Amino acid sequence: MTVVVPLIIGQIVRRHIKDWLERKKPPFGAISSCVLLMIIYTTFCDTFSNPNIDLDKFSLIIIVFIIFFVQLSFMLLTFLFSTRSNFGFTPADTVAIIFCSTHKSLTLGIPMLKIVFAGYEHLSLISVPLLIYHPAQILLGSVLVPTIKSWMVSRQKALKLTRQPKAPVKV
């Protein structure tokens, strides 16, 4: 009811008002960002205002390191698998695979946690890793973009050089 029904209703309504949406161009990007910010804020407040949360600083730091390690590991694995020659992905495909396959959003994770663990008194404690994972993926993405971009550009140039037909030799 929280995730699937709104998605289905949105797809149905979109078909009927598609022309109007293309003419008016409502600010869906800004609305989406505001809703995401509101979800993050309310979850953060619910989590850390809960008196039952028993989370010391050391545990929080360990969770942060584990999440960064897991995120980097997933990004490395997707990079290694997507750059194998037998899959046939372009460098641009590889970059999309790295970021799209490892990045998950709070907008889906928090409702799922609230559904699965409804009524559980330690829901706040369970949501801490997700609250850390979202900023971690943004931070890692912004740190790794220059390196990944330079790799992609160099690979694309190398692929173009190997695919160009050789000019005939004039005698």
TrEMBL record:
Gene Ontology CC: plasma membrane
Keywords: Membrane, Transmembrane, Transmembrane helix
One Pfam short name: SBF_like
Annotated InterPro entries: Na+/solute_symporter_sf, Put_Na-Bile_cotransptr
Ranges annotated as spanning the membrane: 28-48, 60-81, 132-153
Gene3D superfamilies: 1.20.1530.20
Domain of life according to the entry: Eukaryota
Methyltransferase listed as a keyword: no
Similarity-based family: Belongs to the bile acid:sodium symporter (BASS) (TC 2.A.28) family.
The protein, known as: Sodium/bile acid cotransporter 7
Organism expressing this protein natively: Chelydra serpentina
Organism ancestry: Eukaryota, Metazoa, Chordata, Craniata, Vertebrata
